[in-house]
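Reviewers of the previous submission asked for a worked example of the structure-prediction workflow described in the proposal, so we include one complete record here. The input consisted solely of the amino acid sequence. No template or homolog information was supplied to the procedure at any stage.
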Amino acid sequence: MADGRVFIGTPARSVCAADVNTGQLLWRFETRGQVSAAPVHADGKIFFGQHGGTGDFYCVDAGSGELLWTQNLGWVWASATPFAGRLIVPAVNGNIYCLDQADGRTLWRFYAGTGCYPAPAIEDGKVLVGSWNGYYYLLDLETGEERWRFDTRGNPDSGAALMRDGRAYIQALYGRAFYCLDAETGAEIWSFEYPDGWHCNVSPALAEGKIVLSTFYYGAVCDYPIAPCLYCLDAATGELRWQARGDGGITGHAVAGGRLYSGSSCTPWFTCRDLETGEILWRCKMGGRCEETCATIYGKHAFILVTDGRLYAFA
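From that input alone, the workflow returned the following structure tokens.
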């Protein structure tokens, strides 16, 4: 979201821009494949990849939706991460690309061996990226050179990592724990283990010394997660502060002003909680569940995409 606009990627092979105050469609850009990850905005441009069609990665003008350039990177399921005129793009073919935002030319490439699905994290000249082979890699932002790798004992997938104040926070689908690492060395500082059969595959939210995880358990008779649960941990120690059954799952959450905003992969409720205590402040029923989407805060509104095909805005 930027400049009063929300940018939405769709499985209907398009990216749309809408007015954040009214929801009015401003423009639509047609692609040749499904857009599964959120488009990212930087310097008046929108960047996004696709899968199921060609291997084109796109840069379009955020104001008009006009195509500025394309680069063939193969299928891309994750959001890119922009930083200082560069763009870090993870691809299904196992490559991590560093592109020039201005024209899309490749500055460097790192091959991780198998598909790269989490959005990269960047801090202090370092790039943190995950691969389906189980490893997270820390790379030099300037050169793409590997500094260290960490085995998650799972498969890094949709949930992006975080780097903040010299620490790296990572998780992996089918892994047993959420990890806090020293971003300089890759050494483990603490870990939080999930109950048996539970998974974490969503980007965490970090604010006010707390980190919130969204987890889920797959039922034998369901094709979607059941019994989702949010865990709020102390970011310094990994100690559990509170948990909330029924919220979260394979849907992300957002934090602003001491409040946590989250949907659910199991119910149609959108919930606002007190970040300190986990107490429910308000909740609203929507027309569907939240699946592989993430709440976003822009201005005084919270936004989320729902399985009924609608974008909801809450004041």
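The two ends are 16 Å apart (CA to CA). We consider this example representative of the routine output the project will generate in years two and three.
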